[in-house]
Every structure is written in C-alpha cells, then in structure tokens.
C-alpha cells in the first residue's frame, strides 16, 4: 500500500519521496476526518501576484560540508495572493554552480511525499554535500563526489516549510527577484515520486499564467517556462499504477508470496472500477474511496518480504524498517540549521505528515491522472525525461511507461512505436523527438530502486548533464 490511511497515531517511519507505512492502527471513516483536513477555498482562485524574498544566509565564504569555493544563498520566499494576503512561506536554498553560475543552467528541485522535504534530494548527492554514515554509524555531511553543481545552479524549495497544507508547491518567480540573471538561463524542474503529481500541476500553472500576463496584477511578475523536466520514479497516474501492480511486484520483482499475489489479482477489478468512477466523477469522497479500496486490497506492503523501495534489500524477520535513519539525523543537525540561518526553535521535518501528507490523502489527491496536465506544455516544446529504478516496487517502471504511452502529444505515435535501446551497463532507453536524448524519454536503470540518486549518483549526474546539454547518454 502507498499509505494505510489510519490517522489516530503518527508514524515513526517515513521515507523521502512517497510515503509508505502505517499511520496508526485504529480505523476511521472519511466523514470523521474530512472536516478537519478539507481544502476549504480553492487556492487557484487566489493566485500569487507578488513574491518577497528574505535572505537569511549568504554563504559566499563557503559551505562547511562542501568543497572549497562552494557558494550558496538561503532564505524564505513569502507569497502574496491576489487578495493581498501573504499566506505562503517557503524555505529555499540556492547552491551556486561551481563554474560560471551567472550563465549555468538552473535546476529547481523539490520533494515528493506529499509533504517530503525539498532538502532531501540535494543532501542525497545532487547538492554540494551528501549525507553518509561514518565509522561510528552516525550521519555526517561530506562533500558530494557527483554534485549537480558541477554543471548547474541547484535551487531547492522546501514545500513543507510554513505553508498552508491545502496548497501545492509554488515555484514560479522565486528566482527572478534577487537573481535576475537566472531568468535568462536554461531552466529545468526536477523531482521524484509524488513529484510526478506535483510537477504536472506546477507546469500547468506556469503555462497558464504565462497566457494571463495581460490580466491586472500580473504586469510586475516574471514567469519563466522551464525548457524541460526530469522526473524520478514518478507517481503520475493511479490507474496505470494499479493496473501494472501485479505484473511489476509479483512477477518482475516478486515482493510477495503466491497467496498474497492471488489476493491482489482478486482485488484488482474493484480497485480499478473505483478509480474509474473517481476519474469520471472526481469528488474528494470518490477519490478517497478509491484510494482506500486500492490500498487495502492491492498493495499490502506490510506483508512484503523485501524493501518496497528496493527489491535488492531483504526484510529482516521483524519486517522492513522504512526509517530514514542517519539522513534524518543529519538534516536535523544544528550545524546545518546554523549554516542556513534557520532558528533553533524551528522544527525541521523530513515528512510533514500532519500538515501536508494527511490532508492530501483525505482529499483524494493520489487518485488523479496528473500526467495529462503536461500535454499543453509538451505541445509548446517542453522536453520530458523520466528515469526509473527497475527494482522499485512503490513506483514501478511499467506504470510510468504506461502513462507515457497514453499521453496524447506530438510524440505519442513515435514513442509507442519506438524501439527500446540498450543503455550499456545501465539499462534501456525509450525515446521520441529530435536530438540524441530525445524530447520525450524514459530511462530504465537496472540496478536502482526508488532513490536512484543514492545508488547511482555518478550515473544520474551524467544523465542530468547530458539531458541539459542535449548530448548522447552513451
């Protein structure tokens, strides 16, 4: 199951991008909980019209865990909506490119979850520092050997920081006020897992607001459309996810025994019917009902014999531990808080379950074909790269291949008829569109699970750079 929706107790085990694990043992009903977590007003009816950047730390002297010369800035972006209320506040951390930052590409990255910290990916290797385990078994931050800042500016946005739980991440215009040179540079958005739902919404919002610049209140804004997106193991469509769950997790990577797999087959028709109904009559109640039906019957991750995020890892007798361990310890370390100017009394969460995860679940956010929102931007030239670890059970590659084949675009026919190419020593590539890396591309990575950045950091840095440069992957 992605999440077993029990809300009485909070979990001790959370993961980076897409949360799987118990929320509690006590059952509940939608009616008992929805009033507490409902969205309230429609956030789209009051779009952001002004951004105020607050700089809390200027790392021109370097970063304690990076290489000599690494520079950064960090602070908060405060967003004012069309009603004149400054109602959203997001922490940001800009890691400057090591070479010619004023002309280097800009990569904006944020977490999945929903509610996962946007700092996890940068501290898993994409930023100048990476978290590892020292000889005493403790977490420590050290220079990243394969930082993306070798090629680009990396802007991390923490969606879980002082933000209304009813609102999605808002990233447009964050980089244009105090860093105008970045507006002229190549721009890519990167995320993973539940970022596969966030990214289409963000792209759609930027795309539509670019068309609304003549409206009152928008004249002072700079809204830049990204040239491309890069998505890791993305949850973008509930229907294709569950359609391919049995094939992916009982046959490709047998996470479950034969008895459980037979139960999954029996539960699939009801799950898929519930999703179809929720898609056709999309209300919070219908979406949540589909979520509950599918989680209860089709994805029993508490019964898996191997780590849901990486088939290569066996579960111990007591079951798989989904805790972040030293990563969580280091991100809560006072040294990092001091380095970026975060007050010591401000609690940092890897996963904002109370404020973000639970409201998204209760309002049925998991049950939507978010990928469809990419269509208009792709028609205007947006390049799409999705890479997927083939040992991941939480978001298997087959479900991503399925929605990529279904998405109507100028690339659909070519992608559906493309020949899968061997990527020597890595996996395979399936692509459509011009150029050696294509414009609509899926890279399958054989020896990786949910967190490709951890197990294949050097490879991922290479894929990222080649995608930006439009050069062959191999």
Automatic annotation (TrEMBL):
The keyword Signal is annotated on this UniProt entry: yes
Keywords: Carboxypeptidase, Glycoprotein, Hydrolase, Protease, Signal
GO biological process: proteolysis
One GO molecular-function entry: serine-type carboxypeptidase activity
Keyword Transmembrane: no
Family: Belongs to the peptidase S10 family.
Signal peptide: 1-16
Domain of life according to the entry: Eukaryota
Pfam families: Peptidase_S10
Listed name of the protein: Alpha/beta-hydrolase
Gene3D superfamilies found in the cross-reference section: 1.10.287.410, alpha/beta hydrolase
Database matches in InterPro entries: AB_hydrolase_fold, Peptidase_S10
